[in-house]
Amino acid sequence: MSVQQQHATLNRTNDKMPLCGFGCWKVENNAAEQLIYDAIKAGYRLFDGACDYGNEVEIGKGIARAIKDGLVKREDLFVVTKLWNTFHSKDHVRAAFEKQRKDLGLEYIDLYLIHFPVPLKYVAPDQAYPPGWYPVSGPQKIEFECSPMYECWGAMEKLVDDGLTRNIGISNFNVQAILDLLTYCKYKPATLQVEIHPYFPQKRLVEWVQAQGIHITAYSSFGPGSYIALTDDGKTADPLLEHDVIKLIAQKRNRTPAQVLLRWAIERDIAVIPKSSHEERMKSNRDVFTWALDDSDKQQIASLDQGLRFNNPDSYGFNLPLFS
């Protein structure tokens, strides 16, 4: 790919999706409005959120303030959010989407993803929002419902037909789940969002999905840090930002370790969604389009592959080996 290429062109709409966006997971509610505003000032145009993050009202306020102050126009932004597991029923997709759209204060969403291929028992928003993985009352045990993916995807496609979201996609789907979806979908997913970092590059998945004309967005580009509080299975690994291999490449390139990790993904035509609350790091994380890694750098990074997945419901204490 070109060093300067900064967007992916999505199937069906030909919309230009920025390859470097801003992730909203674990953005605290009391900081979200200002953080989004600052990120827009720093040049970010893609914002990746979700119902499950519980901060969409505040994110919407940050976007609205930036538009009001003339930093951007709505059409300059690419807003991504996700359908949570408890709203997979064809009878609940539209209402869930509309709540998220109104919370964000937007007339339309650029890309709406199914967060996990996991249909959980419905929880009404007035009972708990975001609903999380467990029911509102009772034992901490996930409860499934009979909401087939073909019906859920059909309701997602209806959002496209009604002009509410321009693109639809998926997150945390494996090849088997994607292949099933491709047998009946009217609109192919525009993107797949999955965990990708040098400890877990997912080479074959990436190659196969890209061959289907579906773009990939990586989350957790910096590795294990975000999952320390979630994982109970004892998996540990050195932080990638402090790994000697990454640090040496960064020194050679006169870059930060974060820039090396992000550039590694972008050179695979994978979008990234880093998050930072520091203005200088925000700007630094976006500076990944004017330079490149060489073959030696890539070979060294390839040696870090451990097949080590951190975002796995089965390791959070749920009886759900989703990726097995």
From TrEMBL:
PROSITE patterns associated with the record: ALDOKETO_REDUCTASE_1, ALDOKETO_REDUCTASE_2, ALDOKETO_REDUCTASE_3
Record site feature (Lowers pKa of active site Tyr), residues: K82
InterPro entries recorded: AKR (IPR020471), Aldo/ket_reductase_CS (IPR018170), NAD(P)_OxRdtase_dom_sf (IPR036812), NADP_OxRdtase_dom (IPR023210)
UniProt keyword Oxidoreductase, yes or no: yes
GO molecular function: oxidoreductase activity
Cited Pfam families: Aldo_ket_red
The keyword Glycoprotein is assigned to this record: no
Gene3D superfamilies noted in UniProt: NADP-dependent oxidoreductase domain
Chain ranges of the NADP-dependent oxidoreductase domain: 25-305
Keywords: Oxidoreductase
Binding residues for substrate: H115
Catalytic residues in the record: Y53 (proton donor)
Highest taxon, organism lineage: Eukaryota
Record-stated family: Belongs to the aldo/keto reductase family.
Name listed for the protein in its UniProt record: Xylose reductase
